[in-house]
Amino acid sequence: MKNRLLTMIRGWLWLLSLVFLVLVTGCGNPSVGDSMGVQNTTPPGGSQRAASISATNNSSIMSNLPRLEGKATIVMTVNGSPITIEVDGIAAPITAGNFVDLVNRGVYDGVSFHRVVRDPQPFVVQGGDPQSKDETVPTSRLGTGGFIDPDTSQQRYIPLEIKPRNADEPIYGKTFDQAKINVAPLLSHTRGAVAMARSALPDSASSQFYFALSDLPFLDGNYAVFGYVVDGMAVVDQIEQGDRIESAKIITGLEDLQN
After folding, report:
1. N or C: which end of the chain has fewer CB within 10 A?
2. How far apart (Å, rounded) are the C-alpha atoms in residues 58 and 63?
3. Does the global pTM surpass 0.90?
4. How far is it between the farthest Cα atoms of the chain?
5. What is the CATH number for 144?
6. How far apart are CA 98 and CA 87, in angstroms?
7. Residue 124, strand partner residues
8. Chain centroid to CA 128: how far?
9. pLDDT surpasses 60 at 145
């Protein structure tokens, strides 16, 4: 019994150490040349712009971002099999709106899953870096890219958006610890959760996302969950590093996307 307990404790400590090594992804200037999840947890220079979201007029910045006013259903095809995701714009309108907008633009078609962590315990499958469409981009750079808005020629960043349970509105730009919130989020990191990857800066998410391979409660209040896999989790369980999203399509809810 004692040995089993020690094994479990070691496993959870290992997972905690991966929070900053796996989910801390570069969302800025790819010329920095390091994948922040592997070599360096310091955000690249391009991400510093995202840091200003919290310090400026949140309402004016967020008014220019897509919003989802309701729920949407997305089907991703990976290795010839569908993964059905329910995206929740009621609990996470900006995060969900960003994701649905990127699906609608075809941003995820052809991108790869550049990071898969299953050992010693199931953790995450992460993808969504548009750079991965270009086979000439070194694998060491994958995890440093985000969506470049063609209208502005700038990378789109979205604020960290997490809604506390029983709250009327989400909080923006702060983790629950930073905001001194002691309740659970409405959308938690249970197995099958879909959430945004980001750098160490709260407001640095762009296009990269991850699937939770198991319950990950230590991520709650720190990363923005915006939906869940409702069918096809067995497909997610089989994804390997380098596998690609063949297509991502909006099945329902496009009419609730506000740009």
Report:
1. N
2. 8
3. no
4. 60
5. 2.40.100.10
6. 11
7. 117, 212
8. 8
9. yes
Per residue in 197-223, pLDDT (tens digit) is 999 999 999 999 999 999 999 999 999
pLDDT tens for each residue of 152-201: 999 999 999 999 999 999 999 999 999 999 999 999 999 999 999 999 99
Domain that holds residue 178: 2-258
DSSP, residue by residue, 233-250: HHHHHT--TT-BEEEEEE
Tokens of 88: 């929740």
**Residue 12 neighbours by CB distance under 10 Å:** 11
Tokens 């409702």: give the residue.
Answer: 230
With 0-12 / 13-18 / 19 or more C-beta atoms within 10 angstroms meaning exposed / middle / buried, residue 84 is: middle
Q: Please provide residue 27's backbone torsions phi and psi, each rounded to the nearest 5 degrees.
A: -130, 30
Give the total number of structural domains in the chain: 1
* Composition of the chain by helix, strand, coil, percent to 5: 25, 25, 45
Instruction: Return the SS3 of 202.
Output: coil
Q: Could you tell me the two tokens for 90?
A: 């009621």
Count of CB atoms situated within 10 Å of the CB of 13: 9
